Amino acid sequence: MSPVASVLVVVLVAIVIPQVAPSRNAKPDPSRASKRLMKELKKFYESDSYKNNVFTVELVNNNLYEWRVKLFKVDPDSRLDKDLKRLRAEGEKDYIILHLLYPENYPFSPPFVRVVYPHMYSVNQFILTGGVICTELLTENGWSSAYTIESLILQIAVLVAGAKVDPNKGSGMPPYSYEMAKKTYDTYLANKSWPRKPKDQL
């Protein structure tokens, strides 16, 4: 098993351990959310993911509640990894860019997460129209305040590993945008029909 795959397995084991459910009635507390996000940023820069260049984090316009994440490493045996290497050979960016928006009542509610680059289509249906990542993990019922940015991004790395990079780079398809991603997310939230990881990937 590769070092990257080993890290993902360890983190996933930690994620599936039952956690105490956070209060769903928690009132938004920007100061609390800010402190938590600052703490997580500090921990990230001390983490193995940062030291091993698995992913990086940048604040968008110095906004603590809006992050741009560059994911450099996915499962080396996945189709996505092969597609990213192909992009590199073509002179394109060979990593995934994610856009995260945190709510004011974080960590009691999950961030909104979407793919910005590259344009992908998902065999397991976790990446939908607009690039939004739809999984029960990112809903009020599936979220836990115990999750950290590192565990969340590594979980997302596992989910997107089943996707494929669009060889036409989105040509002839609606471009990824926040508006379209949010509309798709709201539709799935209303229908409560979230894609689930196949049993053979658990």
Automatic annotation (TrEMBL):
<dbReference type="InterPro" id="IPR050113">
    <property type="entry name" value="Ub_conjugating_enzyme"/>
</dbReference>
<feature type="signal peptide">
    <location>
        <begin position="1"/>
        <end position="22"/>
    </location>
</feature>
<protein>
    <submittedName>
        <fullName>Ubiquitin-conjugating enzyme E2 Q2</fullName>
    </submittedName>
</protein>
<dbReference type="InterPro" id="IPR000608">
    <property type="entry name" value="UBC"/>
</dbReference>
<dbReference type="InterPro" id="IPR016135">
    <property type="entry name" value="UBQ-conjugating_enzyme/RWD"/>
</dbReference>
<dbReference type="Pfam" id="PF00179">
    <property type="entry name" value="UQ_con"/>
</dbReference>
<keyword id="KW-0732">Signal</keyword>
<feature type="domain" description="UBC core">
    <location>
        <begin position="32"/>
        <end position="202"/>
    </location>
</feature>
